[in-house]
Amino acid sequence: MTVTIESETEVPFDFEYEQTAREVIAQAMDSEEFPYEAEVNLLLVDNDIIHELNLEHRGIDRATDVLSFPMLDYQEAGDFSAIGEEQEWNCNPDTGEILLGDIIISVPKVLEQAKEYGHSPKREFAFLITHSMLHLFGYDHMEPEEAAIMENKQEKILEVLGISR
Question: Does this entry carry the keyword Translocase (predicted)?
Fold first, then answer.
């Protein structure tokens, strides 16, 4: 597994955020039984950058906490059976790892939401990565049933890691 972490803003977290990111990504892959080695990119930004990206890619004129850019299409969320058939289209030619996608997180939103929800910045950061990883696996939360599935999976992943509210 390759996790590339880059920052385009100051990251004032009081925890080992790179280690946390790698642990959360690995646990999400384990929990979903992702059958391949994978590559994930994580970019930490400020509210101005995520606002710009939201406007450019989603037509949303505001900053949000996280953006997910999946590199794979799924017939059904969490069904990885078709990846093997098209692996050459979705892998890094140098490593052979499947390109899952990109996660972009607003550092100010992590801090703001942690305070708002009454938990640690580490928990908020881990939650946003978990949430985004599920998007990279094809899950969504547009319908109440989909949201319930994602919420359940998120809580289980964080529980295994011992990261609670």
Answer: no
Measured from the Cβ of residue 68, the count of other Cβ atoms closer than 10 Å reads: 21
Q: Is 141 annotated as a binding residue?
A: yes
Instruction: Quote the CA–CA distance of 35 and 90 in Å, as a whole number.
Output: 14
In this structure, what token pair is assigned to residue 145?
A: 């049933």
Query: Residue 51, annotated ligand binder?
Result: no
Report whether 135 belongs to an annotated binding site: yes
Low-confidence ranges of the chain (pLDDT < 50): 87
What are the tens digits of pLDDT across the range 101-148? Answer: 999 999 999 999 999 999 999 999 999 999 999 999 999 998 999 999
What CATH number did the domain enclosing 107 receive?
A: 3.40.390.30
